[in-house]
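queue> pop job 88
queue> type: inverse folding (structure -> sequence)
queue> payload:
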């Protein structure tokens, strides 16, 4: 992809960006339905939120916002404001991927809390929380300010650190998968392993569904680390659960 982008003009980059983000959207929807049907026995919500026309419109707007972020990143890279660490070793790719995930998890936690402030929530983030249960496009039902804001966090990190292209690709793949999983109405991780070290620090579908029900808790994305640290973590039974869960503690 890097080699391709080097020799493309900005019109071609725009087309690539829109197509790439459309493919990402389709992958997310496909994975959502695949996991929902495969893991039906682990369902914890009775019904998915309906998909309305206004959600489809907002989805298209967010797709275009994400495409704009991609274009901005390419422009900054072509003008050497963003420097990529090409030909990195496997170890460097692994370490930089972990660094990128850690930094984004931290930044997105506080950005998410900012969106829940008294001023910004009704103006910006409330739209996403109309989905008190989730569906296959809930991940993309965001205010354009949120979509641009999340994207600019990534741009800022790419400006500060020299990440290998492979680390960026791995992170974006994990981000897509994790975002899709977080908006499922089924739990991906089996209960029998939910108590294991590291596993019980991951932000899961149940964790984020609780946030959609109770907006004062569970602001994290990939992990529960920051919610635990800042006392914003809450886990309790949902629709199809009879007993209080001991996971995530």
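queue> result:
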């Amino acid at each position: 992809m890097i080699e391709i982008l080097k020799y493309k003009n900005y019109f071609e980059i725009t087309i690539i960006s829109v197509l790439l983000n459309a493919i990402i959207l389709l992958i997310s929807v496909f994975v959502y339905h695949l996991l929902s049907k495969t893991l039906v026995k682990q369902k914890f919500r009775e019904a998915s939120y309906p998909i309305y026309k206004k959600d489809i419109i907002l989805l298209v707007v967010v797709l275009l916002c994400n495409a704009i972020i991609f274009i901005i990143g390419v422009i900054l890279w072509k003008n050497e404001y963003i420097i990529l660490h090409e030909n990195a070793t496997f170890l460097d790719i692994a370490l930089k991927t972990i660094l990128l995930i850690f930094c984004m998890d931290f930044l997105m936690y506080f950005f998410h809390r900012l969106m829940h402030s008294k001023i910004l929530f009704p103006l910006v983030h409330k739209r996403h929380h109309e989905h008190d249960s989730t569906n296959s496009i809930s991940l993309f039902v965001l205010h354009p300010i949120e979509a641009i804001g999340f994207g600019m966090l990534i741009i800022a990190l790419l400006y500060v650190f020299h990440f290998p292209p492979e680390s960026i690709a791995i992170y974006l793949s994990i981000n897509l998968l994790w975002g899709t999983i977080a908006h499922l109405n089924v739990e991906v991780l089996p209960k029998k392993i939910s108590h294991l070290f590291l596993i019980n620090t991951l932000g899961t579908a149940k964790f984020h569904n609780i946030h959609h029900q109770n907006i004062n808790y569970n602001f994290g994305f990939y992990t529960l680390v920051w919610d635990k640290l800042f006392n914003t973590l809450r886990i309790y039974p949902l629709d199809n659960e009879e007993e209080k869960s001991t996971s995530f503690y």
